[in-house]
Design brief:
mainly beta, 4-stranded antiparallel sheet, 32 strands, globular
Length: about 450
């Protein structure tokens, strides 16, 4: 009888331990999700814009004009970066006013063209658009429009803007697509995707817009899965498909003999003829919550997609008439961190973005076989620069690693590059014209990254 009591006591202890572990994980996840929408740290009023007439718009040698950079390949044109951060990096400037109000967190990354930096923010009732001098952080102008937005993970914009010569295009979480004069911030036109049958997804519109020839293209969802507007006038050029809006950026697809784009919507990946909106092919791809937030990677004939929530990844061989699945597995499960194809190998983060426990992997593109993985960089996002990947984890630590198929090579790192942060750092780092830009909610910090800057 005593043995039964001991056995039952052991089972009870084990069950209690399991319950405590599960409860602790759920509480940690709840805390992280809660703090993802709340602001913390310094928050200052928006300053006055500079009184003098801003300098004429110029272009830099290594601009970053969109979610995927100057050339649309997610690679910075900056070279000659500092590769030893043991002595720190020189902070050039910092601002702490991009979000106003406790639940106004915004996640969109900055874009830079020469002497203009555009970044979006939020207050209690409006989306905010700021134009700063990227060299010294001076506020050149700011604009806004009223827009209702719920506060799930913050009410501010998620999508990253697109600079197109003397105009900039922004896309808010509630579906407001707007065109602004880059010189002075005057609104040229504004539309909302719901007017065309679009529908906001669970966590708000996050898919960054794409400028292609005379079009600006966005994911809209609902009865207007993807919409192309005339970038000059804002009139609708075409609407394509009916689906749930995804969170990944619209991607240019240069393979066909005609302009086309890839739309990673909530139920799969669609290739769309950019001339008329015709769906060329659609590959089903489903995950929990319809959360496709990682940008498809295009390299030659191949398209690589990945999603989190244990969905995994898939390589397609595609042309204008269809797409063939070459392999599918779970080597990379990326929630919203874009991987890279470098010399025939995939490099990128895998795992959940709520805790800093992800892994960074190298995988053979041809067959999806894992070469190596490391937990030394937590979970984060990356930008390719000067033959390296510069990564920022969700704690605001930054790392510089050298891609190599045989082993993980960490060149250098800098802890707390964003200072003390509360909640996850989800905005990816941006490198333009010799400078590194790191964003966390209301905060934007600029570091000198190239030698001599």
């Amino acid at each position: 009888m005593k043995k039964w009591k001991i056995w039952l006591s052991g089972i009870f202890v084990i069950l209690m331990i399991v319950i405590i572990v599960i409860a602790a994980r759920k509480w940690t996840t709840y805390t992280i999700l809660k703090t993802s929408r709340e602001l913390s740290g310094d928050q200052v009023p928006i300053p006055e814009s500079v009184s003098s007439e801003p300098e004429p718009i110029v272009k830099g040698d290594a601009d970053w004009i969109s979610w995927q950079g100057e050339n649309g390949d997610n690679r910075s044109l900056v070279s000659g970066i500092i590769k030893d951060w043991s002595g720190g990096l020189r902070k050039v400037w910092q601002v702490d006013y991009l979000c106003q109000g406790n639940t106004s967190a915004a996640w969109s990354a900055p874009v830079i063209q020469g002497n203009r930096l555009i970044v979006c923010g939020r207050n209690d009732e409006s989306d905010l658009i700021f134009c700063l001098d990227p060299r010294d952080g001076r506020l050149l102008w700011h604009s806004s429009y009223k827009s209702k937005a719920v506060s799930s993970h913050g009410a501010g914009p998620r999508a990253t803007s697109f600079i197109d010569n003397d105009r900039v295009y922004t896309f808010g979480r509630s579906g407001d697509l707007a065109c602004w004069n880059l010189s002075d911030g005057d609104e040229i036109w504004r539309r909302n995707i719901t007017d065309e049958g679009g529908k906001e997804p669970t966590w708000g519109h996050s898919s960054s817009p794409l400028i292609l020839n005379d079009l600006v293209i966005v994911q809209a969802g609902g009865a207007a899965g993807t919409i192309a507007y005339d970038k000059h006038s804002g009139t609708v050029a075409w609407k394509s498909g009916q689906n749930i809006a995804g969170y990944a950026a619209i991607t240019g697809w240069p393979k066909p003999e005609f302009p086309a784009v890839l739309s990673f919507h909530g139920k799969g990946l669609a290739a769309i003829d950019a001339r008329n909106g015709e769906v060329l092919w659609n590959v089903p791809w489903e995950t929990q919550y319809d959360a496709h937030a990682t940008t498809p990677v295009v390299t030659g004939d191949f398209v690589f997609i990945t999603s989190g929530y244990k969905t995994g990844c898939q390589l397609l061989k595609a042309d204008g008439s269809g797409a063939e699945i070459l392999w599918r597995n779970n080597t990379i499960e990326s929630m919203h961190s874009d991987p890279y194809v470098i010399d025939g190998f995939l490099y990128g983060y895998s795992g959940q973005s709520y805790q800093n426990r992800g892994v960074f992997k190298c995988v053979t593109l041809q067959d999806g076989v894992e070469k190596w993985s490391t937990g030394e960089m937590g979970w984060g996002t990356c930008v390719f620069v000067d033959d390296h990947l510069l990564c920022c984890d969700i704690k605001g630590n930054i790392f510089l690693m050298k891609p190599h198929p045989d082993k993980f090579i960490l060149a250098t790192k800098l802890n707390k590059a964003l200072g003390d942060v509360r909640g996850p750092v989800w905005t990816k780092p941006v490198v333009a014209n010799g400078f590194l830009y790191l964003r966390f909610k209301q905060r934007l910090i600029c570091y000198a990254l190239a030698a001599g800057d």
